[in-house]
Amino acid sequence: MANDVWVYIEHKDGDITPMSFELLGIGKQLADGFGSSVCAFVIGDKVDDLAKEAGAFGATKVYAVEGDVFKGFRGEAYAKAAAFLLEKYKPEIALFRATSMGTDVAAAAAAQLGFGLCTDAIGLAVDGGKVKMTRAAFGGNYSVSVVNEKAAPQIATVRPKAFAMGEKDASKSAEVVKESFALADADLATKVVEFIKSATAVNLVEADIIVSGGRGLGTDAGFAMLKELADLLGGAVGASRAAVDSEWIPYEHQVGQTGKTVKPKIYIACGISGAIQHLAGMRTSDCIVAINKDPDAPIFKAASFGIVGDYKEIVPKIIEKFKGKLNK
Amino acid sequence: MKIAVCLKQVPDTEAEIKWDIPKGTLSRDGMDSITNPFDEFALEEALLTKENYDGEIVAISMGPEGAADVLRNALALTVDEVALCTDDAFAGSDTYSTAYVLAAAIKKAGDVDVVFTGKQSTDGNSGVVAAELAAVLGFAPLTYVSKVRSIDAAGKKIVVERAIEGGTEVIEAKLPAVVSVIKGINEPRLPNLMGIRKASKIEIPKWSAGDLGVDAGKVGAAGASTKVVEIAVPPPRGAGEILKGEIEEIANTITDKLIDLKVIK
After folding, report:
1. Do B232 and A110 touch (CB under 8 A)?
2. Domains along the sequence of chain B with CATH
3. Which residue among B127, B166, B254 sits closest to A198, beta carbon to beta carbon?
4. What architecture (CATH level 2) is domain A5-187?
5. I need a surface site. Which of A24, A89, B8, B141 has the fewest CB within 10 A?
6. What letters, b where the CB count within 10 A reaches 16 and e where it falls short, cover B241-259?
């Protein structure tokens, strides 16, 4: 259907997390605005399980392209298949997660169709028969809303965790439409040789809780303390640019303008002053706790809860209290 | 080997940003500008590639005439050629139009084997131009590259490492390729005084829409498919609560408040 809202189901080698389906929630809301349906689209070497799960998370229809050439994740191959599906069915809008995988597929598919796209949307609403897509600009000091007037479909990548997930209902199922799309290895310029799993496996974008440290930690040893707190809460460790540039922690942990943009439910900033470049990466977090010695640090203006003091005294006390209260 | 590197001029990341709200574009007047920080890594990777494998580098920028500064900086670091894609018709281009213009410039430069770009710009922040550029050119898309393992120009092959969610992916690709690099792939060098002096005297070639043979209907505000419909200043986050008292009491309060959010399992 021309007005349908499509959600791309992200997975790696069939490996999915509930987050793969998170956009079906906002997709349903938009489809309700159009009086249309929310559909999923899946590309992979085996798609049946993904399609079934997408149905349980609210997709009414699942469009799928299946083939050996899609084994593993190959952005190039996935984008070609995505462009094929979008061109054929021309839904109103296609939503992708703003992760590295989602962005690669969305950008290349949009370019093949000859259109621009909206990236890292934090607001999506039906407005005048189109979807108005809102993104943060310049450290969140401005929000910019765009509409894609020429494109069919509109394409947007959406900031992970920006919208509530749809409820899972295992009794629901979707109609599955399998499309054949012939693509041979010889048609592709890239080949995955191997995937080296990170020993620390930080996935800041998916983390519900992030404990982050900055220049105020004073030393790399400070991160050991933050990691203890993060582990206790099932969270991940983040860092400001100053801490990364001081080589206290690898770049993959960096949050901010030249690092990752995150939106966890709880963000605990320790010894981070709150420069606009850092705020750009975390100011949409649900709850921000700031711990800093300097009562005038700008981070306190963004914080839900502020604690003025030395993290070296405060964090161990917080760890001790959590251990007691969480029975850990 | 012919190496291209795309460089964007952006407002200084320390600068205060002002939007021209009626126009929906940046007010660049009186704002300090720099080379996009991610592009410095792309330029350094181009220089390292030239040193390791031999070849020549063409640095390409798209922007207003003032963007010549970023190319002058690249010349000071001894790139071989530069070209500035500049035309009033380009103003207001979206990511696709930008990729389309850069693709035309890369074709005009001729027989490019590898294009380096930064992962994203710090002003637009979309991080999609490299993938779009690869799609428009039909080059191998290699994004989020954290290491270039090897390039074999004669064998038309490149092997890179990509930093993606959960780890590192090793990819082998056919050349030509577009490689977007992340921060930390190398240590960008600074130009020396002699390089700066030399570069200051070189005329920067300018390529217009006509020179590039691009379809004026596909570029700039006229060609952009995404239109800005609203720019707003989001409401500030509600003033937070400063927890006061003894550390014991503060730790007790904050842990209660966080547990109440029902996020911690």
Report:
1. no
2. 2-223 (3.40.50.620)
3. B166
4. 3-Layer(aba) Sandwich (3.40)
5. A89
6. eebeeeeeebbbbbbebbe
